[in-house]
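Section 5.1 Outputs to date
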Amino acid sequence: MRISETDHSGHGHGPTLAQLLALVADGTLDVVVAPCGTHVPVSDVVLHDPGEERDEEAWAATGLVLLAVGVEAASPDAVDVLRAADRAGAAAVVMRRGARGPRTALLEAAERGRTALLTRGPGQGWTDVLGRLRTALVHSVPGRSVGSAGVDGLRLGDLSGLANTVADLVGGAITIEDPQSRVLAYSRMDHEPDPMRRLTILGQEVPRWRVVELRESGFFQALWNTDDVVRLPADERYAERLAIAVRHGSEVLGSIWAAADGRPLAEDAVAALTTAGRAAVPHLSHHRTWGRAAAWAREGAVHALLAGSTQAAHDVGIARDRPHAVMVAEAYDGRDAYDGRETVPGDAGQRVLDVLALQAAAYRPGCVTARSGQRLYAVVPALDGETDPARTLLAAVPSVPGSGVPGSGPAGGGPAGGGLPGSTAPGGPAPPGVVFAGAGPVVADLAQLPASRDAAELVVRVLRERATRLPAAPAGSAVASYEEVAADAAVLRLLDRVDPLWGAMQGPVHAMVEHDRAHGSRYGDSVTAYLDAFGDTAAAARRLNVHPNTLRYRLRRARELFGVDLADPAVRLLADVGLRLGRRTG
């Protein structure tokens, strides 16, 4: 990118090219050459057909951004299109980049003129580019409003960044909601949230009973019919709240809520929230128009990044020169899901993954996520000197809404004081769920992200397979970093290699596994418990909830029926390998 240091911000009226580019999503446009800088004023964005007949001498395009549909930067016509736009006074011309990129002749022509040369990013359609630029143009305001500098600096549609910025201005916890009281984003949590904020975040919407309560009290009527901040006083249940409607003309786009977050709200919280409500208009408008398509494109770019495409870093807006780590989380409604009998998350598991994605977005700038079936992937940037950023994020793994299940725990599962404590809303508890989450190691180069992803996926597999060995289905969260389960992960890698060979063999362990499958017997479970207890029959029997004599009988019958003699070290090894592999297929 070549940009002149000349500053033309004092010429003309309206937003500058730099302001528009700051608002559109990363990867939409690339500045190739800007001979007069990017502070040139922009009056409109229009589609430009170079083949259209016009009087070139009389044609005026002063301040226009021309989208040269059908023109590739490497084509022979590109130079003529740029020169004609320059003579007409256009602020910029946008061309399709193509596989080869701009030719040298085009770059030289751009440097000799005054019109900026931009290229359209891969995967972006002209309709999308036009819509994004027009949205940015409509909502751009020259200069900055008093007290909104941080908000004005956000990229259009960055709702998580908006929530965190407003939280800093107001001095409280922020949620941004759509008109149906569904959570679009929320600020990072520096303190334990009050029960209502916890319920709202975990459920991704204000509880229905609370919506009815606010509607019947007249609060929503007051909120939707004023441009001012509306105050909801504290009571014995919940902290004080301030709310403001975000509207574009007569259309309500959503609302911003501020709650006291372990400290009183700032003295100027009302003024700050009023400013934030105005500044949020372009962000919520952009979200309504482009949010879903942009989310799909962004998620595809994250998957490409996880597969090793460093070019996708530009599309998702993460820094190439910072170390990163990958977190992987799986959420299930119960044992039928995680032991392989269900392949998609149910309601509780789905909610947990959605909340985790929101939590990751609020956790740290540059943290991006993508979903794949039961899994959520998060690419987490590391701070200077930080060795395990993904593990830190895992401390915020939430409980399943309404289940009463504790938050994140150590590698073995159980509560550890982190995350969001479970809670029960009016209307009854939700079914218990299970979360397995793993953190991969930090990698210095984005090209190594697939290795961190593979390691995180292995951690999740370790935690899931540990759970399948338990006699009763656990509930809650089991989280770990790769270093914490390195030995188990190495065993899984070995089993992956052995699996094809084992399937082609026959022997005593194979016969025992097949008998259990055919008849529902539990010889394999008995042998597994015995091996896991290092031959301690009493401990193994307690794990199986049977009498020690019952276990001794099963082990004797396994030897008599199938030849599984656990006094033989080789048989013990084969039994451990075969039963581990057998659990993979139920």
